[in-house]
């Protein structure tokens, strides 16, 4: 190559793919593929999700009627009523426990605890979130079924579910409060606010959307769990009338009916319908979370710059 | 120095004596003694890291909200030692307000922002309404926001937000307002508005303003204190300090030879 148009008498700069070689060239070419590889990974992740939803819906929807929701399963027939009721009661107990303890612990960790205690608390929260659900199930079985002499009860199931959900609420509460800009605290204290007034009037409203997201997220996770309740809530086909009785629940129906010997026919269908219903509920919870956080994000715009 | 009941002369809003502020590993402020006059704007100037911000934060016990700082010495507010163990810091901060470098509006409406301190005092609603309007007028922002009181304060411009913060601080009727570079994040027009607000406010209350800008100190203050490396080098009327500085260090700083 000869002098450039500017007449500087230098070689023309190397700008084309052909003008470089070896590793540089391979890297340049690879870079061009990245924008195609990433969407491919995206599809690989999403395909099983849609495939599963489609598969479940295909088996569940044709026979899904109002009776599926309102009738109790008897023998090989009936609907999911007792399981829906059981799941609702279990998740209500679990949410109450997780919200109460998780939020209180989160407040303490973020605002009051001395630093080593807070660090320990966060670590413990992460460990608890990482404990396999089945371990919690056995823990509940020994403590709340055997040791207390309660036997299998809805209450025990709800408590273990609450223990399962608590770390998620705890972590999001802590995170939400610690991410409130410190200038907000300064400003409130400089106005003569006491720390508790700052917490309730300023920090908590700012943190609330994140905390709610955590609670709904914990509910969605709790709804899908079978392991913590299988060993504590037992199983009962009849709709519960009290907390000290065993109960059936939606994830239990999937677990029990899918592999049962006469697994063609009604019970298998019930398993698919329970799965379908759970998917709908979890989807609904996620939509709520999304709407909430969008709304709140608009309200807080400019705060987290 | 037990100072309870020691009279403070008329015209002195705050009397600071032998004030030391220490962090764990170093001394931030050394032996500061100064009288902050009533109903004037006192500018605190000095190069970065000289302790200006720490100094005004020590005047309403905001230093305590930073972990690891210890304060020694005396700050008398109308004859009362604010560092006396029997004094509640919360009450000190209600009388000696503070405005920060960047606007710190809360993510609530304009109205609720200004009402914040009044609600802490459980004032009746009609009084709050009056006081909110009055404070916004005093802060020079009423005309701009009077139709937007229910809008989120965060949706306003930076200059408006800062004046909302001033209004919020004024609403609890402080006798002294501490300002930490109140115009540092504002454009020239907003800066001018805030400075005009300060001049008007100083007819009723004392203002202590930290500023990076020597020009601002010259424009907007009647008294100036020059801090350097944690010590008070010189203080006096702004005019005198700028035109006939007594200390060589002061002269070098105000003539722009360093800092």
What does this structure look like?
The complex is a heterodimer of chains A (305) and B (259). Chain A is built from eleven helices and no strands. Chain A has 305 residues and is mainly alpha-helical. In chain A, helix 5 packs across helix 6. Chain B has 259 residues and is an alpha/beta fold. Chain B has a domain at 12-104 and 174-254: Rossmann fold (3-Layer(aba) Sandwich). Chain B is built from ten helices and ten strands. In chain B, the strands form two sheets. Chain B has a six-stranded mixed sheet with strand order 6-7-8-3-9-10. In chain B, helix 3 (110-120) packs parallel to helix 6 (158-171) and helix 4 crosses helix 6. Chain B starts with 11 loop residues before the first strand and ends in a 5-residue tail after the last helix. In chain B, 48% of the residues are buried. Mean pLDDT of chain B is 89; it is low at 1-5. Chains A and B meet through helix 7 and helix 8 of A and helix 2, helix 3 and helix 6 of B.
Identify the notable features of this structure and list them briefly:
heterodimer; A: 305 residues; mainly alpha; MetI-like fold; 11 helices; globular; B: 259 residues; alpha/beta; Rossmann fold; six-stranded mixed beta sheet; four-stranded antiparallel beta sheet; disordered N terminus
Nutshell version of this structure?
By secondary structure, chain A is mainly alpha-helical. Helices cover 71% and strands 0% of the residues of chain A. Chain A contains 11 helices and no strands.
Helix content of chain B: 25-40%
| CATH level 1 name of the domain at 12-104 and 174-254 in chain B | Alpha Beta
Helices of chain B, by number, come to 10
Return residue spans of chain A where pLDDT drops below 50 for at least 5 consecutive residues: none
Strands in their spatial order, largest beta sheet of chain B? 6-7-8-3-9-10
Order of helices and strands of chain A: HHHHHHHHHHH
SSE topology string of chain B: EEEHEEHEHHHHEHEHEEHH
């Amino acid at each position: 190559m000869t002098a450039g148009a500017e007449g500087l008498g230098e070689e023309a700069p190397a700008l084309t793919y052909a003008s470089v070689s070896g590793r540089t060239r391979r890297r340049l070419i690879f870079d061009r593929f990245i924008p195609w590889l990433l969407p491919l990974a995206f599809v690989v992740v999403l395909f099983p999700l849609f495939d599963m939803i489609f598969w479940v819906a295909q088996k569940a929807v044709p026979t899904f009627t109002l009776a599926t929701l309102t009738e109790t399963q008897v023998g090989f027939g009936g609907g999911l009523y007792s399981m829906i009721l059981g799941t609702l009661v279990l998740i209500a107990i679990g949410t109450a426990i997780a919200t109460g303890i998780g939020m209180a612990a989160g407040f303490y960790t973020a605002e009051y605890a001395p630093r080593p205690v807070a660090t320990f608390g966060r670590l413990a929260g992460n460990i608890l979130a990482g404990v396999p659900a089945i371990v919690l199930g056995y823990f509940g079985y020994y403590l709340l079924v055997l040791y207390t002499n309660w036997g299998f009860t809805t209450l025990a199931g709800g408590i273990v579910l609450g223990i399962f959900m608590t770390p998620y609420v705890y972590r999001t509460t802590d995170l939400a409060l610690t991410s409130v800009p410190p200038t907000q605290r300064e400003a409130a204290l400089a106005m003569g606010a006491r720390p508790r007034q700052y917490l309730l009037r300023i920090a908590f409203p700012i943190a609330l959307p994140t905390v709610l997201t955590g609670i709904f997220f914990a509910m969605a996770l709790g709804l899908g769990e079978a392991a913590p309740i299988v060993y504590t809530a037992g199983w009962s086909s009849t709709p519960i009338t009290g907390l000290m009785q065993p109960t059936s629940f939606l994830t239990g129906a999937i677990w029990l009916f899918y592999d049962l010997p006469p697994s063609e026919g009604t019970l298998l269908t019930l398993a698919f319908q329970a799965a379908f219903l759970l998917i709908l509920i979890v989807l609904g919870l996620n939509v709520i979370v999304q709407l909430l956080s969008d709304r709140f994000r608009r309200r807080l715009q400019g705060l987290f710059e | 120095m037990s100072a309870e009941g020691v009279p403070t002369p008329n015209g002195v809003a705050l009397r600071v004596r032998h004030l030391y502020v220490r962090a764990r590993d170093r001394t931030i402020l050394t032996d500061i003694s100064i009288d902050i006059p009533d109903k004037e704007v006192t500018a605190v100037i000095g190069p970065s890291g000289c302790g200006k911000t720490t100094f005004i934060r020590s005047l309403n016990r905001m230093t305590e909200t930073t972990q690891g700082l210890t304060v020694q010495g005396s700050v008398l507010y109308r004859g009362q030692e604010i560092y006396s163990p029997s004094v509640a810091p919360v009450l000190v901060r209600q009388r000696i307000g503070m405005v920060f470098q960047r606007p710190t509006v809360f993510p609530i409406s304009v109205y609720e922002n200004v009402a914040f301190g009044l609600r802490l005092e459980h004032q009746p609603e009609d009084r709050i309404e009056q006081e909110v309007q009055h404070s916004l007028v005093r802060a020079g922002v009423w005309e701009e926001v009077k139709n937007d009181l229910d809008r989120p304060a965060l949706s306003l411009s930076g200059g408006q937000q800062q004046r909302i913060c001033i209004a919020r601080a004024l609403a609890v009727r402080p006798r002294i307002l501490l300002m930490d570079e109140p115009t540092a994040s504002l454009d020239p027009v907003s800066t001018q508005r805030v400075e005009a607000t300060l001049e008007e406010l100083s007819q009723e209350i004392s203002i202590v303003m930290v500023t990076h800008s020597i020009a601002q100190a010259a424009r907007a203050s009647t008294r100036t204190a020059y801090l350097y490396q944690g010590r008070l080098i010189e203080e006096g009327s702004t005019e005198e300090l700028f035109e006939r500085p007594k200390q060589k260090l002061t002269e070098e700083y105000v003539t722009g030879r360093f800092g």
